[in-house]
Amino acid sequence: MKTSLSIKVTAKASRAAILGWHGGELKIAVTAAPERGKANAAVIDLLAERLGLAKSALRVISGASQPRKRIEIEGLDEARLHSLLPARPEG
Predict the structure, then answer these.
(1) pTM
(2) Is CATH 2.60.120.970 the classification given to domain 2-84?
(3) What does the pLDDT look like over 5-40, one tens digit per residue?
């Protein structure tokens, strides 16, 4: 089973965090710079850890060089995905 997730990434943030939902997008902050795929890798690391999946189960399917991205996630259905993500900002 596969699902996808729309995200908005803030790179070069002071701390890495899943900030919660804004509209239909999950806001994520990472400390990595948006160069040579570093921010994308940091997003994958953060989401994989939070979802309890291997990094190889997640991949950027669109927006690789943009703040707005679409992530494909293998091994979770949409209901389980949303149950593992915050409803409001973490802090």
Answers:
(1) 0.91
(2) no
(3) 999 999 999 999 999 998 889 999 999 999 999 999
